[in-house]
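One thing: mind reviewing this one?
=====
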Amino acid sequence: MEATAILGWVDYLVIGLMLMISIGIGLYYRLTGGRQKTTEEYYSANKSMSILPVGIALMVSFMSAITLLGVSAENYVYGTQFVVINISYLIGTPIVCYGFLPVFYKLQATSAYEYLEKRFGIKTRLLASIVLSIQLILYSGIVLYAPALALETTTGLSKTTSILLVGIVCAFYSSIGGMKAVLATDVFQAFLMFASLIIVIGTAVNDTGGFSEIWKIAKDGKRIQFDNFSFDPTERHSWFSLIVGGMCTFLSLYGVNQIQVQRMLTVKSLSAARKTLWINWPILTALSVTTCFSGLAIYSKYHDCDPLKTKGKGFGMDMLMPLYVMDTMSSVPGLPGLFIAGIISAGISTISAALNSLSAVFLEDYIKPIYSSITGNEFKQKNSIIWSKLLAFILGIICIGIAYLAQYLSGVLQISLTIFGVVGGPLLGLFTLGMLCETAKQNGAITGALTALLFLTWIAFGQPRPRPIGLPTSVDNCTVTVSSNTTNLINNFNSNDYFYLYKISYMLYAPIGLFITVAVGWIVSNITRDKKNYIDPDLFFPFIANRIKTRQQCNLNNTSLQSKYSNNQNSDYLDNDTTKM
């Protein structure tokens, strides 16, 4: 395996400074302001946050190290078709703003899953919070693994050391700083993420002679692809799968996910919360497009000597960007360190968001109800704060364990989006069913969600399944021996050899989960319809809520008229009876 340059002392100084700033932000918010005397301050910052930092934080929460490493590698190996997903973000933003967000803002709950208890019952809430907890813990472990890859490639540190370093720092400042620390650190880390990408692209522009030359090299290598308009669900990436699947994934993350809902409730009003989402969209798209182009920048360096074929079995596609940085920037002290700081920051920002939200879910959905059922008393505010911090730290340690298991997976981008689809689709379906269908009941909601979850788990992880086909790469200009262990990215396979459902694009898991949950939930609810009780209009999408309010007002008016008519009739009868007397 060809030797790779490693970081110097200046680079370590830059990385260390970044980690110290992150820890410092957590300590600052622990020792200032209200000092987190209430869970409202710890989880929702007492609704004191301004629009811009929250808008940036919404982007950072899920644009993690997985995005920087995975999306760049996606464009290097499979081409630019993935860029189309950004259209789905624009479509999904108004749906969240004017559909889901008004419901949650009226509810004003620490846990978004309190909605499901009010709409359906406690069983539905517990099911959703358990599924969400599994999703976020798994995802956080994979996110933690991504910067460990970068550190291993550039420092020579083992994955074990890298995971422990990043994981402990993240668990520490997330547990002491609360929501204000998480949001403030997100803004700082967003700057580092953009800086990392600018460094990569700028270096490639300087080496190749311009943006047009990068584009030309990518076009000659057949990386420029925007022409897949197929409706075939087995096509990995097409306009259909990326827009429909991307929109449902976006809705599951920004519309009903605890992390994002909790952030949007840190501002003072519903209109302010909507503005945070509209601020988030261009920043999110800018980072996504920039990351995609960084993959082409990396390809301009390796188009005639693919490291996936020369670096040996232990080298994966997600290590391409760190390798590029060390191959092109190691001669400039501090520059590779700034890049690695950006990768670590991207991971930390996402994990801290997940830990803070998981802590809220565990406290509100598990600890408090269990305590109240056993003792008959309410959970004290002082104990809530202690448990909030303890839970965040413990969950951080659990994520470190998951990160060790993540090293046995390949392709962090596809794995993370698969998890979002398998879990996010049914969760999105639960909330959509509740907010859309007046006749939906708890038995239908649970049946629909479990059916979707089991079906998606089967088709997403069933074996054997085909490997995606990478675009052709060259080793014509290599000075090292080509490894025979890493050519599997471009090996062809016979599609007929695999079960059809196992070939469905992972991008379609979220819409499939949404459809199954809503369809099965509605059917079961109407088959086993129970006695109709009062419906709270605030638990439905605004256009449904307005219809319910209108109907209820009409019923109220009719009842009043009937009552008045009945009273008049009784009065006439009494008058007539008196006359007779």
Summary: Confidence is low (pLDDT under 50) at residues 484-493.
